[in-house]
Amino acid sequence: MVRVGGVRNRCRTDDALAVLSILFFVLFFASLSLASDQPVSSAGMVRMEIFGKVLNSHNIGVGDAKIQILLDGTPLKIAGGKQHGDGDDSLNTERDGSYQVRFWLQAGLLTSESTLQITAYKPSFTKNSYEIKRHELTRDGENFLGLADIKIARTTGPAFWIATVVFVLAYILISFELLHRTMAAMLGASIMLVISYTFGTMNPEYHILSYESAIKAIDMNVIFLLMGMMIIVGILKHTGLFQWCAYKCYQLARGNVYMLAIILMGFTAFASAFLDNVTTMLLLTPVTIEIAVSLGITPLALLIPEILASNIGGTATLIGDPPNIMIGSFANLTFVQFAENLAPVCVMVMVLLFVFSKYLFGKEYNKAKVDDIQQFIIELREEYKITDATLLGVGLVIMGIVVALFLTHGIWHMEVSIAALFGASLLFTFGLLTKKVDMLELIEKDIEWATLLFFMFLFILVGGVEETGLLDIIADGVLYLAHGNLIVSICLILWVSAIMSAFVDNIPFTATMLPIVAYLTQVIPGAESGVLWWALAFGACFGGNGTMIGASANVVTLGIAESAGYPIQFFQFMKIAFPFMLLSVVVANVWLLLAY
After folding, report:
1. Alpha carbons within 13 A on the beta-carbon side of 347
2. Which of 89, 123, 213, 252 could disulfide-link 75, Cβ–Cβ 3.0 to 4.6 Å?
3. Please, which pLDDT band fits residue 242 given cuts at 50, 70 and 90?
4. Whether residue 511 has pLDDT greater than 50
5. Which CATH number is correct for 45-151, 2.40.110.10, 3.30.460.10, 2.60.130.10, 2.40.10.240?
């Protein structure tokens, strides 16, 4: 027993020595890590820290700008931040344009006559510097601190023209259906990146955007929102819910197809005002296709008015469309202010849409001939039944949770995509555990991968022209042409936003216009009412109706229709939607001029 106790005591001693050895090595390597940011001896040395932001002409931070520090013209080695890759004498700004550099200097080098020069450069921008004299530094113990905000102006160099040409050519391929829209966007995005990493490596003036910038340009909130809702809709459609909804809508319309279209448009607009309009269309599109097929008419006669209604309804509230969320956050505008100033116009435009739909699709609606409406309703009721009540019940509960999270996401500071993915994962798990859902079938057929990829590549395309300054040039043009006149400013912001939003994603364009509108609101007499914010909201949201890629809801709806065997060409959609977009913007323009 004594011998065993001795072994135990010796083991404890060995364990203690092992712990002490580990602690010694941890402290040793930690001291080496700390020492890497300072000289071997700090005697006669002073620690410098310079921080600030690199801004463009709109006072928006410029990410990935190269920062260098020079002392009387000599580059200094710096630490901290993201290294540029060509040495330790430069670093890149963060995504918001901020930077923080640290370095050590011999005390004797920093004299009263010394000048620290902070330079900032990025392709498609001019190089600019900020100089700090010795007496402008703030002393904090042994450290010297300096603040340097640097403005750099846009230039239209090779990168600008290449990005613009590639974007236009990709758009032509999409518009004329020369390539599938996903392949056209992929081709354009890959060309931008290849040029950036070949010609851009040899000459920075040809650098359009980095791989990191391209990834950041992809709005994963949109991608994950779409994916989550596609999964939910894909599972719910196996319960017979959408077929049953088709029967109920037809029953409510009592066989009148035009009245049915009005019911669908009204419901779409109302739902889009309080839910994301993409989510609304994901839910309604399968229902609409079922209704149209049962009536013997093309689903596009109902889907296109629904698309237009979804973008109109999304305009009415703060949470209905992403540009409104951005405007409300930037200008500190409330939900009530949005509803008071935008909803009346949206109601008028919806009435216009009812008339417009009758004029365009009246002949198609009249093709739906049903001899005995009551008998047809009975047949629909028998054919379109709920096939899986258990899965439907669980699905509706989960969908209710997702909708509640959508409505309150501002309280939790949570992206709407998180709510969609949460609901999709819960419902998917339930379906797999109960063997009510085929995982491979759902992944292969119900998730519109072509649509998701199109969005990703389109985000990169728009990111390229945004990085090289095309959107900034347009915003500067609005500022220049306004000349301080309120009426001109209202019309310019409204129409430029509408036309641009019809052809490029309205989110980056809205972000570019926010500081411009804020400046005009401060300096133009009468603009303090906020009318310019409403002009931007109307333009960015209504403009999405102009083309089939003008808004996310358009792309998603038409992608589902295409997979169901009902494709529509770019100009075919534009021929219908663009004139209505112009009419809706005219109504908004008249309202803004009369009301303010």
Report:
1. 6
2. 89
3. confident
4. yes
5. 2.60.130.10
SS3 for 100-128 is EEEEEEEHHHCCCCCEEEEEEECCCECCE
DSSP 3-state of 77: coil
In this structure, what are the phi and psi dihedrals at residue 130, rounded to the nearest 5 degrees? -135, 130
Using DSSP, state whether 198 is helix, strand or coil: coil
Cα-Cα end-to-end distance for the chain: 97
What is the residue extent of each domain of the chain? 45-151, 318-369+469-596
Apex CA 519: angle with CA 582 and CA 551, to 5°? 35
Tokens of residue 182, six digits? 């996903």
pTM score, two decimals?
0.75
E-state strands within 420-573: none
For tokens 């890149």, name the residue: 92
Under the banding of pLDDT at 50, 70 and 90, the label for residue 55 is very high
- The total of other beta-carbon atoms located within 10 Å of residue 275's CB is 22
CA–CA distance, 302 with 466 (Å, rounded to integer): 35
Q: How far apart are CA 272 and CA 420, in angstroms?
A: 16
Asked if residues 423 and 267 have their Cβ atoms less than 8 Å apart, the reply is: no
Check: CB of residue 106 under 8 Å from CB of residue 44.
Answer: yes
